[in-house]
Specification:
The complex is a heterotrimer of chains A (about 450), B (about 450) and C (about 100). Chain A has about 450 residues and is an alpha/beta fold. Helix content of chain A is about 35%, strand content about 15%. Chain A is built from 17 helices and 13 strands. In chain A, strand 3 and strand 4 form a beta hairpin. Chain A starts with a helix and ends in a 10-residue tail after the last helix. In chain B, helix 7 crosses helix 8 and helix 7 crosses helix 11. In chain B, strand 4 and strand 5 form a beta hairpin. In chain B, the strands form 4 sheets. Chain B has a 4-stranded mixed beta sheet. A 4-stranded mixed beta sheet of chain B has the order 9-12-10-11. Chain B has 18 helices and 13 strands. Chain B is globular, with a radius of gyration of 24 Å. Helices cover about 30% and strands about 20% of the residues of chain C. Chain C has 3 helices and 4 strands. A 3-stranded parallel beta sheet of chain C has the order 3-2-4. Chain C is elongated, with a radius of gyration of 23 Å. In chain C, about 35% of the residues are buried. The chains are: A alpha/beta (about 450), B alpha/beta (about 450), C alpha/beta (about 100). Strand 3 of chain B pairs antiparallel with strand 1 of chain C, so a sheet runs across the interface.
């Protein structure tokens, strides 16, 4: 809707055709950009359809409405829309038992469906001990709602998610990644909302990993570790409640993606023979950082053999197609590759050079390249991955032979995707306070 | 470890080479089978390693330990091992405020790291209104711990997860599905990090507002979120499957938080999954599969030709086991409009997906042996990816869910689906009415 | 809002399990010379290699011992290959001790 709005602002009338399922989304988008009266017509043409007959039928049905939208004179309301009621909610919005709070928040569409910790003044105050920023410090505005991202709002969502106060610096840095994300196709405003069900995937580097117990070993992506579980969850709630991105309205993910519950890992820097991700991206080893991408595929496979050839060829053969690639390799495989002279750059170069697709397939896929024109051939091969910087290699995982891929969307290389984590002055004391909150499993 | 235990029980001494990082896992497995004292020799050979010299060095290093393990006389404990766990823990296990309960449970390794609702007698009693079965009714004993999934234990984990009482019938059926054969437990502990995926069919889905449409597998719907979560907590606390001890998943799998959808039956041109699998349309069912991987992609074009070509062209070869194609209602309709039935689509996929000739040999899999016996790998011979076997006669399945859009999904890996009927309590209609309006209402801005 | 200090008395999610009878180990060999050592291989890739090297070392150190191999086609004969139970039992009867490799 944003293009239509800028055209209207240049004094030319528009009408937009929108798939009927996206009616809410379109309204929401135009209202949030200040043009609630924008004229649009819903059609029955399915999204991303390429069936000519369907498209013709859908447009035929509404052609009269299109003409009317462009010619019928404006109403008074359309000329001068009434201003949005300024939001002035009370500070304490509800009082009730644990079950009542959960029900109230869920029915307001403020949760992910799982239980939340009620964000009382007391709980939020404790959460804020994790940062030196004052509660009303404004980080910026988060799309799609231009929601005012204050430290306190972050803390409220963090309490709901079940975070410890020591996660606040991580949440603040992660949210900055979203706020400062590049505009346009490769940023948060696409991947946060699109039909592709892309999920934010957070990789954490630096000393903070061990200080707050972010799992990078067995089962890092599985439930069971409070840091991995609640950090991703909290940012998901931030996207929903500060950004205003809700399923079926702004978040148009068709099938959904369980990675949206939470997808957080740290790199096993100690056991890796290579430089960690944040150093690759220009930070110092002793900095702590959080890096963002948006996968909608999670795939695993074993290598053909444990040597470099077996590892790399299996990666090339089993990579699902997408735009940005994260490959998680165990320390053992990384060491095997290192022994045979591979560093991360060489690994990426190998993969980019060997992952070939036919030009016919390239043409049909969701890629933004000049090669998209023309029909393409089934016998001419090109590199699927044009730029090795589209690939990230992260060392992690527990004992075992698998390799994992998280593939989907992500930033244009060089654009915003990583943020340094700033720590409060009393960090050491805070860490000590929460360090031993770890699971101890009874043997049976 | 099971074979070693079996052999010891038959009176022959054994010793097993164990990758050192799997020590806890092996001892847990052995313990759960009644032989906590089994002799193992830890070695540093990495899983699936193929590096001969390295293996030779390592084996030579530990060889003396191997010989010692089969010759050194048994200790008193090894002849007659003692028990670890107290047999009768107290009923009320803790008292504290919300934060304290959460921390206590987390530290005992009983949660997934997210907040839990404290399972008080009151909360458990309320959730038990969702079933007619008595609290002490035993639904199943589940490997590896042979933990007793009584209706009450299911209820406790359901309360923790945040479930509504109306989800109890699904959870009970879910437990029956998980316990139906040893497959699920093996998937839940494997290094391959297989995540349970639950597909629900029948009227129960709409009754409990289980999402079958836009963002079905994403967070935001209490039914989808808490049903999967509760099953995950049951797998942890009933089966005794914990990360890095029993669950040796190398990376883990985000699907293990919760991976639940209802089939979009109203908008599917085909018969729903449960009818395909022999149930009556009026039944409600839950179907369990264990994908290791999941992918989404846009079809090359949204007509039948494009959709099918996309499937054939996008399957990655390493998807041990079952393959489930997820179609949105309109993609399913496109296929149906051009005369494709589910069966025809499956046959097309089986016939046309191929890997290069030596793919399985390079993985070290003896294809002819593997293809008949091996239910989990469902490995084929030659270059076919899919090969029906005795225990896996249907290597390809089709689910229809999602909103009206063109994305296609794959759920890859694991054994054949297990479907169980959902039994509803007598007062189902009243129960449904009581909770029906617990839905999100999004404020417009 | 109820006080943060509201006390919840809670039940345990940890299922009960019947105590299983614990078994002791089988008596050990007094020597390896002259015995039949069974080598049990599961289906994981490193296992055959491990046992190959083990066999070599056994033959070097105990020339009078004999070796007998058995290979699982899945990950566990006793759990997953019921149809081979007779064959497996016969093999166990023949050997005096078993070295198993899991390769995982």
């Amino acid at each position: 809707m944003y293009d239509a709005i800028s055209i209207e602002e240049r004094n030319k009338p528009t009408v937009s055709l929108v798939n009927e399922g996206f009616f809410n989304d379109a309204e929401s988008a135009s209202r949030s950009q200040g043009m609630p009266a924008l004229r649009y017509i819903t059609t029955k043409v399915p999204c991303e359809s390429s069936i000519i007959a369907d498209i013709e039928a859908g447009v035929d049905e509404v052609i009269d409405k299109i003409i009317t939208a462009l010619t019928k004179p404006l109403t008074a309301e359309e000329k001068v829309p009434k201003p949005k009621e300024t939001e002035k909610p009370q500070r304490i919005i509800f009082k009730g038992t644990l079950e009542e709070v959960n029900c109230f928040f869920y029915q307001r569409g403020w949760t992910d469906g799982l239980p939340i910790i009620p964000p009382t003044e007391e709980a939020v105050k404790e959460m804020m001990t994790g940062t030196d920023y004052p509660p009303d410090h404004l980080l910026g505005k988060l799309q799609s709602r231009n929601g005012k991202t204050t430290i306190e709002k972050i803390a409220i969502n963090a309490v709901m998610a079940g975070c410890l106060p020591t996660y606040m610096p991580v949440l603040i840095a992660g949210t900055i990644n979203l706020i400062e994300s590049e505009p346009g196709f490769s940023g948060y405003t696409t991947f946060g909302f699109s039909t592709g069900s892309w999920a934010p995937f957070w990789s954490i580097n630096g000393p903070i990993r061990n200080e707050i117990n972010v799992n990078n070993s067995s089962g890092a992506f599985s439930p069971g570790n409070i840091a991995n579980a609640t950090i991703g969850r909290a940012i998901g709630l931030i996207v929903k409640n500060i950004g205003g991105v809700r399923k079926g309205i702004e978040d148009m993910g068709t099938m959904g993606d369980p990675m949206k519950y939470t997808c957080v890992i740290s790199e096993n820097e100690e056991a890796s023979p290579w430089e960690p991700l944040h150093v690759e991206l220009g930070y110092k080893k002793e900095d702590s950082t959080i890096t963002l991408s948006f996968p909608n595929c999670y795939c695993q496979h074993i290598p053909y053999s444990a040597d470099a050839d077996g590892i790399l060829r299996s990666i090339v053969d089993n990579m699902p197609r997408g735009m940005r690639y994260n490959i998680v390799i165990t320390p053992t495989h990384a060491k095997n590759l290192f022994r045979e002279g591979y560093d991360k750059a060489k690994v990426k170069k190998y993969i980019a050079e060997h992952k070939l697709v036919t030009t016919a397939r390239m043409q049909a896929m969701l890629v933004t390249t000049a090669r998209q024109t023309g029909k393409g051939s089934e016998t001419e091969f090109v590199q699927l991955i044009e730029d090795p910087r589209f690939i990230r290699v992260i060392v992690g995982g527990g004992p075992g032979a698998f390799i994992a891929h998280l593939v989907g969307g992500g930033a244009t290389p060089g654009k915003k995707e990583i943020q340094k984590i700033e720590l409060p002055k009393n960090w050491a004391k805070l860490v000590a306070k929460y360090k031993n909150i770890v699971p101890n499993y009874a043997k049976y | 470890m099971y074979d070693a235990i079996y052999i010891e029980d038959k009176g022959k001494p054994t010793v097993t080479y164990i990758f050192e990082h799997f020590y806890n896992d092996s001892m847990s497995a052995a313990s759960s089978k009644g032989m906590p004292v089994i002799r193992v020799v830890p070695e540093a050979i990495v899983s699936e390693s193929t590096m001969r010299e390295y293996i030779a060095t390592e084996i030579t290093t530990v060889f003396d330990d191997i010989i010692s393990a089969v010759t050194r006389p048994l200790t008193a404990e090894e002849k007659s091992p003692q028990r670890h766990e107290p047999e009768n823990p107290p009923r009320l296990v803790f008292k504290g405020n919300l934060a304290e309960v959460n921390q206590f449970f987390y530290r005992r390794g009983w949660t997934d790291g997210l907040p839990v609702i404290p399972p008080t007698e009151e909360a458990v009693a309320e959730i038990l209104t969702g079933t007619d079965l008595p609290a002490d009714h035993l639904v199943a004993k589940i490997e590896p711990r042979l933990g007793k999934a009584t209706v009450e234990t299911i209820a406790v984990n359901a309360v923790m997860a945040g479930c509504l009482p109306t989800y109890m019938p699904l959870l009970i059926a879910g437990v029956q599905a998980f316990a139906a054969n040893p497959g699920p437990a093996m998937m839940a502990v494997s290094t391959g990090s297989w995540a349970p995926f639950w597909l629900v069919n029948g009227i129960v889905a709409a009754d409990i507002n289980l999402n079958c449409s836009y963002g079905a597998a994403s967070p935001g719907d209490i039914a989808n979120a808490t049903i999967g979560r509760a099953m995950g907590l049951i797998i942890k606390n009933v089966c005794g499957i914990r990360k890095k001890i029993e669950d040796m998943g190398v990376y883990g799998n985000p699907g293990k938080y919760s991976f639940v959808a209802a089939e979009n039956e109203a908008n599917s041109p085909w018969e729903p999954l449960h009818v395909e699998r022999g149930f009556s349309k009026d039944d409600s069912t839950i179907t369990l599969t264990f994908p290791q991987s999941f992918q989404q992609m846009l079809p090359f074009s949204t007509d039948a030709k494009g959709i099918l070509a996309t499937v054939v062209g996008s399957i990655v070869p390493a998807r041990f086991g079952l393959f489930t194609l997820v179609l949105t209602p309109n993609n399913a309709q496109s296929l149906a409009n051009e005369g494709w039935s589910k069966q025809a689509v499956k046959e097309y996929i089986i016939k046309n997906t191929r890997v290069h000739e030596d793919y399985y040999r390079r993985l070290g899999l003896d294809a002819p042996q593997a293809s008949e016996q091996n239910t989990f790998l469902a490995v084929s011979s030659g270059s076919e990816i899919f090969h029906p076997t005795k225990s896996g006669p249907d290597p390809v399945h089709i689910y229809v869910y999602g909103g009206f859009g063109s994305w296609m999904g794959f759920l890859q890996g694991g054994p054949s689906p297990i479907t169980k009927k959902v039994d509803l309590p007598k007062n189902w209609v009243q129960l449904v009415k009581k909770f029906k309006n617990i839905v999100p209402n999004y404020v417009r801005y | 809002m109820e006080q943060q200090s509201t006390a919840y008395e809670v039940l345990s999610p940890w299922a009960k399990a019947d105590p299983i009878s614990l078994h002791g180990l089988a008596p050990r060999l007094n020597k390896v010379d002259g015995k039949t050592i069974g080598l049990l291989c599961n289906n994981k890739r490193a296992a055959p290699l491990i046992l190959e090297i083990t066999e070599k070392l056994l033959k070097e150190r105990f020339p009078t011992a004999s070796i007998s191999r058995f290979k699982s086609q899945t990950f566990s004969v006793s759990a997953l290959e019921k149809e081979r139970e007779g064959e497996f039992n016969d093999w166990i009867n023949e050997v005096d001790a078993v070295i198993a490799a899991v390769g995982d």
